[in-house]
């Protein structure tokens, strides 16, 4: 898989997940965040609106607090087993906004944000 790829889990989670690190630079630490419905009590660091991505039907935001790290091998295994289904990839501009939001987020785990710093994807 690659940076900007998006997917949904088949069971247990209806959110749109996206790869925001570069698996080509570190296959052992692939950083994922998801999109969730916008509410005033959620982090406002990166808002995503209808038209920003084909899967976005209403005002949404990136849920940095719930970021996850998996290996590229694990993600590919989940894909091959049919446990995740690929969706439309992120536009480069939206991927850049999400990464910039990760750098500003006060809720993302420091070690997760560090992945983007180590890869030179954020300043």
List keywords for this structure.
123 residues, alpha+beta, globular, 25% helix, 3 helices, six-stranded antiparallel β-sheet
Q: How many alpha or pi helices?
A: 3
Strand order across the largest sheet: 4-5-3-2-1-6
Helix-strand pattern: EEEEEHEHH
Class per helix and strand makeup = alpha+beta
Taken as a percent bin, the fraction of beta residues is: 25-35%
Largest sheet report? 6 strands, antiparallel
Radius of gyration: 13 Å
Helix proportion range? 25-40%
Report the mean per-residue pLDDT as an integer.
96
- Shape annotation: globular
Number of DSSP strands? 6
Outline the low-pLDDT stretches.
Answer: none
Measured distance between first and last alpha carbons: 24 Å
Oligomer: single chain
Describe the structure.
A hairpin with a 6-residue loop joins β1 and β2. This protein is 25% helix and 27% strand. The model has no long low-confidence stretch (mean pLDDT 96). The two termini are 24 Å apart. The protein has 3 helices and 6 strands. With 123 residues, the protein is an alpha+beta fold. It has a 6-stranded antiparallel sheet.
A few lines on this structure:
Helices cover 25% and strands 27% of the residues. With 123 residues, the protein is of the alpha+beta class. The longest helix is centred in the C-terminal third of the chain and has 13 residues.
Indicate the topology.
Layout: E1 6-9, E2 16-19, E3 30-37, E4 47-48, E5 60-70, H1 72-80, E6 84-87, H2 92-104, H3 110-118
Antiparallel strand pairs: 1-2, 1-6, 2-3, 3-5, 4-5
């Amino acid at each position: 898989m690659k940076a900007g790829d998006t997917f949904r889990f088949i069971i247990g989670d209806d959110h749109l997940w996206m790869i925001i690190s570069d698996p080509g630079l570190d296959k052992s630490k692939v950083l994922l965040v998801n999109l969730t419905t916008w509410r005033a009590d959620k982090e406002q660091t990166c808002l995503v609106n209808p038209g920003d991505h084909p899967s976005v039907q209403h005002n949404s935001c990136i849920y940095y607090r719930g970021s996850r790290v998996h290996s590229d091998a694990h993600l590919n295994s989940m894909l091959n087993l049919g446990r995740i289904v690929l969706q439309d990839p992120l536009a480069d501009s939206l991927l850049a906004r999400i990464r910039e939001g990760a750098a500003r987020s006060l809720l993302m785990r420091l070690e997760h944000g560090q992945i983007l710093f180590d890869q030179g994807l954020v300043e």
